[in-house]
Amino acid sequence: VWEDAPVNEVDVVSKLTELGYELPTPTPPLAAYVPCVRAGDLLFVSGQVPMVDGEVVSPGHLGDDVSVEQGREAARRAAVQALAVIRGELGTLDRLSRIVQVTVFISSTPDFAGQPQVANGASELLELVLGEPGRHARAAIGVAALPLGASVEVAVTAQAS
Amino acid sequence: VWEDAPVNEVDVVSKLTELGYELPTPTPPLAAYVPCVRAGDLLFVSGQVPMVDGEVVSPGHLGDDVSVEQGREAARRAAVQALAVIRGELGTLDRLSRIVQVTVFISSTPDFAGQPQVANGASELLELVLGEPGRHARAAIGVAALPLGASVEVAVTAQAS
Amino acid sequence: VWEDAPVNEVDVVSKLTELGYELPTPTPPLAAYVPCVRAGDLLFVSGQVPMVDGEVVSPGHLGDDVSVEQGREAARRAAVQALAVIRGELGTLDRLSRIVQVTVFISSTPDFAGQPQVANGASELLELVLGEPGRHARAAIGVAALPLGASVEVAVTAQAS
After folding, report:
1. What pTM was estimated for this model as a whole?
2. Chain C contact for A6, CB < 8 A?
3. Smallest CA–CA separation between A31 and chain C, in Å?
4. A110 and C105: CB-CB below 8 Å?
5. What angle do the packed helices B9-19 and B68-90 form, to 10 degrees?
6. How confident is the model over A1-32, as pLDDT tens digits?
7. Pair B48, B153: CB distance under 8 Å
8. What is the rounded distance in angstroms from the CA atom of residue C49 to the CA atom of residue C46?
9. Does B112 touch chain C (CB under 8 A)?
10. Does A31 sit within 8 Å of B120, measured CB to CB?
């Protein structure tokens, strides 16, 4: 059964609930684009800026006014939003084969070097709630600034079954 | 017919002309790489720095010496260049199935938060000239600096039919 | 034979040796992710920070404490690491069809504009050791900071045969 259904939505939602998250309604794009495009069995999810109730979570810069723990939590939430977008695209997470690639952009001062710890917020959450299919290739990048002053933006490529 | 030819090159060129653009000869790569690689039906277009007559359009940083409107125009032009590269790869835009993903890198001061408005220059142009097949997943990222001092660089993934 | 085996591992290792490199044991991920994910015939390699003997090569920022030549060498080494990851994934580089896309992130001061020269370290090495299949689409991006204070991080997408 693993081959056909590596991800089980009921389990995913249950694990997210244990962690204190629910799958949100996908955040509408901030501008003239769409949340997700499917090409063959690949899903390209638009960059997710972590939002709660219309407000950016922990805006600012790592190395300055945002702590590593705040950044990790922002990355976690952005990863949850990416799952919500994937569910919106596929109808159900049961059709998600695996997370392929995650790029975590992190607003950073020039001397901040802890991008991997921040990005782990997203990576660990995906592995925790999806299991093996949640393990992905990753790049963590420290950038000058992000939309709406966000500290983290997470871009995800996934594969549908 | 939509299924087989979602993009019509004559229409695209006509709409670009209305907007004041022509499809340029693809800008040669700045260095040791190629403008586009096709893998299966996916096209990976090299990052486009907006150029006119061998000069970078609106070099500098958003939040400092480049206005949002200048950045939008730079993003528009980079998107047109990406279309030119795709046409060069496919022979004709009639074989373009859709734009899949657009990443807009924007040279930004640390306090500039308007990356989505700048990136819309690229996104809105693609939708305007290609219609539905121009709608894409997107990430907008504020970076420290770009090649040749450019304010915008646009990377595009597309799908061929 | 070209169609079936565009890349020959013995040749690649021989050319790397001439250049003074060996294919290292893939650097373990810095955190909760995997070195490479395969989706169909595409390989997504995690961002490579250049490391030698557990130390980052030439940490710092271009435009400040890292020279263009040091950056080029760091990019070269990161590209070699990406090849090592691809070999680890495929068992042998003989199964590598081509390098598709390379994104070179370069820690840069806001006024540094030589990202293409730095990124050429990676691009030229890939072309030199792989030949035509080493030629790729590319983006070079100047960023605020990278994991472990690295000056360069290289993300690669490749195609398996």
Report:
1. 0.95
2. no
3. 23
4. no
5. 160
6. 344 458 999 999 999 999 999 988 887 776 78
7. yes
8. 10
9. no
10. yes
